[in-house]
Specification:
It is a single chain. It is built from ten helices and no strands. It is globular, with a radius of gyration of 24 Å. Helix 4 packs across helix 10 and helix 9 packs antiparallel against helix 10. It is mostly helical.
Length: 278
């Protein structure tokens, strides 16, 4: 079947499934909103702490005389050019790194729990399955997400394992490492969504093999679904920024579309991948 037919039929089936099981879709919508609320709460809490430490550093540095004459005078008097408490900068930097690591830990746990539940429920929206099967899919999702997200977050944690001195000395190298991290994360995310899309009908030991087969040999089908999802997200975000100060009604619609796009995206990806599993 041509890619156009597979994607088109998957779009129709996805919309039909939503209409057929409106109550379950509404539950998924509420779950998605709850995730965004929890994510925002964690974000606000730890971003506030990080900003406080950053402000402490900038306020301290703003009080120091860092011009050439003052720096020369401090060196001649065998004083630190960074003032009376230069370690204050490294202490706050270490706090920034620590809080960011804790923040990532909470996000990791939140993603594992939410995605495991949401994708399992999405499978149930598309096909009637027993509670035992639902539990089995949920457990598979946890194992799959621990593998993929575990790799992504471990890689990022390793990149954070730097001191302030190393950050200054290795900034070009760190930029290259973060670029590699971004590319690897995108690739892992691409395969991750395929893996959890086939969790309902594939044994855990065979998921990697089938994921690679679908993800590599039939990438054009999968990418078509991904691009549709990205388009929906882009439209919702565009409407949001356009209407944030202009039209409260369109603003509300953009928020609803934003949440909808995540749920519809999962449904569409599962529908497309299910057609490629043979």
């Amino acid at each position: 079947m041509p890619a156009k037919n597979i994607v088109y039929n998957s779009l129709k089936e996805s919309l039909a499934s939503i209409w057929k099981r409106k109550s379950l879709f509404l539950l998924l919508f509420i779950l998605q909103v709850a995730f965004f609320v929890a994510f925002s709460a964690v974000n606000i809490k730890y971003q506030t702490k990080i900003l406080e430490n950053t402000k402490s550093i900038t306020d301290y540095l703003s009080k120091q005389k860092l011009d050439e004459a003052s720096a020369t005078d401090a060196i001649l008097q065998q004083k630190s050019i960074l003032g009376d408490d230069p370690l204050m900068i490294s202490r706050n930097f270490d706090e920034i790194v620590k809080n960011f690591r804790i923040y990532l830990g909470y996000i990791f746990i939140l993603l594992i729990i939410f995605m495991s539940i949401a994708w399992a429920m999405t499978h149930r929206l598309l096909k009637t399955i027993s509670l035992r099967q639902l539990e089995n899919i949920f457990l598979k999702n946890i194992a799959i997400l621990l593998f993929y997200l575990g790799l992504i977050f471990t890689f990022f944690f390793l990149l954070l394992n730097v001191s302030m001195a190393q950050l200054a000395e290795q900034s070009p190298m760190l930029f290259a490492k973060y670029a590699v991290f971004l590319v690897v994360s995108i690739i892992l995310a691409y395969f991750m969504f395929i893996s959890i899309s086939i969790a309902n009908h594939t044994k855990l030991k065979n998921i990697v093999q089938k994921t690679l087969s679908i993800g590599i040999r039939k990438a054009h089908y999968v990418l078509s679904a991904y691009f549709i999802n990205l388009f929906l997200l882009s439209v919702s975000m565009g409407l949001f920024y356009y209407s944030i100060e202009n039209n409260p009604f369109i603003l509300l619609l953009s928020i609803i579309l934003f949440v909808f796009s995540f749920i519809f995206g999962r449904i569409l990806i599962i529908n497309v991948v299910q057609k490629l599993k043979a």
